[in-house]
Design a protein that fits this description.
about 375 residues; alpha/beta; TIM Barrel; 6-stranded mixed β-sheet; elongated
Length: about 375
């Protein structure tokens, strides 16, 4: 196995879910997001761990992601949050992957497929656009669309959903917009009920709302990034503690490598493509076999992102290459070839920075950091 690998602590994932459970009522269902290969952590293994920890539903973004779970023998409810193409509808129906529907055309595609395959009472969830501006019917259309689902003769309205745009923003404006979306959603639910139809499991709470908006939990919550050990933007560890709702999450992924070479460098020598870094004094350069093809992106170069070796952080020097990067070990260097190097993750693995730390330094979010770790990096699953 490569020395560059991602350790996936399934024990941390399960403990995170247990901690999240303390924020919701026992009867409230939990739908754990395992889309995008479980945010880069490994969908099948994380799905199994989530179900062991008490998840009721799993969510994916694509039909192929759902089929991967089915092929692995996972029989739990799988909710598909994005739209599939007409060519994928038959596969989704065959695999019992529950779609979000919201218009006549899409309802027709699934209805036709169900009839062709002899399916009855095929579960769908109605998506309502309450202010995200992505997918979903308008709240005023919810009753009418729910009637179309019921009148199809083959589909069953198992749930009704919406998605928040600003629930991870704790400013007054952010909270006000989330409250507006929630009111819109309740109006949509009322219109479905007024049409004489049961809206099913109503769900809108993503990671941030799961932790910060208990009144919005309804029938099910949909935690995502918090399952993997990272807080939802401004709904941070510090914010939750100040609100009297402390939560300690543990990163599930640690990315580690090793020092493949230690090279003495004289003052004034250049390192890396473009000669963007020059040693200002005699030093030692460590070479780490990880680069942007692994998801250790070129933009991480010389911006404050570091790599930990032996309990100390060392700065990246020069541009990150496709397969390697370099760190400045300093003149008095105790680092040896094949010493472990830790890029980010759980402190128990020797990490001195998290995906959140890297995200702050590079103007993004932790989701992108973990999702970016490529398939070239083998995943090692740990479950105590």
């Amino acid at each position: 196995m490569r020395v560059t690998r991602a350790l996936i602590h399934l024990d941390n994932l399960k403990e995170n879910i247990r901690q999240i459970r303390t924020f919701i009522q026992p009867e409230t269902k939990m739908c754990v997001a395992v889309k995008a290969d479980a945010y880069g952590h490994g969908a099948v293994q994380c799905a199994r761990a989530a179900l062991e920890a008490g998840a009721d539903f799993l969510s994916v973004a694509t039909c192929a992601e759902g089929i991967e779970l089915r092929n692995a023998g996972i029989k739990a409810h799988v909710l598909m949050l994005s739209l599939c193409s007409p060519d994928e509808v038959d596969d989704a129906v065959s695999a019992e992957i529950t779609p979000l529907v919201f218009d006549s055309e899409y309802i027709g595609l699934f209805s036709d497929s169900c009839r062709k395959q002899g399916k009855r009472n095929f579960a769908v969830h109605l998506a309502v656009d309450t202010g995200m501006g992505r997918i979903g019917c308008l709240p005023s259309e919810a009753g009418e669309i729910a009637s179309e689902i019921q009148n199809s003769g083959v589909l069953s309205l198992e749930g009704t959903a919406t998605h928040f745009a600003m629930s991870d923003c704790v400013s007054a404006a952010g909270k006000e917009y989330t409250a507006l979306q929630f009111r819109n959603f309740l109006q949509a639910i009322d219109s479905i009920k007024s049409a004489g139809i049961n809206p099913g499991i109503c769900h809108c709470a993503n990671s941030a709302a799961t932790l910060d908006c208990p009144q919005m939990h309804l029938g099910m919550v949909r935690p995502g990034i918090i399952v993997y050990g990272y807080y939802a933007d401004e709904v941070s560890r510090e914010y939750l503690a100040s609100a009297g709702k402390p939560l300690e999450l543990r990163p599930v992924m640690t990315v580690e490598s090793a020092v493949s070479a230690v090279r003495p460098f004289a003052s004034g020598k250049f390192v890396g493509y473009g000669c963007t870094w020059k040693s200002s004094s005699d030093t030692n350069i460590g070479v780490i076999p990880v680069g942007y093809a692994d998801g250790w992106f070129r933009r991480f170069s010389q911006c404050g992102v570091k790599i930990a070796v032996g309990g100390k952080n060392y700065p990246i020097c020069g541009r990150i290459c496709m397969d390697q990067c370099m760190i400045d070990l300093g003149n008095s260097c105790s680092v040896k070839r094949w010493d472990k190097a830790v890029l980010f993750g759980d402190s128990s693995d020797g990490a001195l920075q998290t995906a959140d730390d890297i995200a702050r330094l590079t103007g993004t979010i932790s989701y992108e950091i973990t999702c970016g770790i490529s398939k070239r990096v083998p995943r090692v699953f740990i479950d105590s």
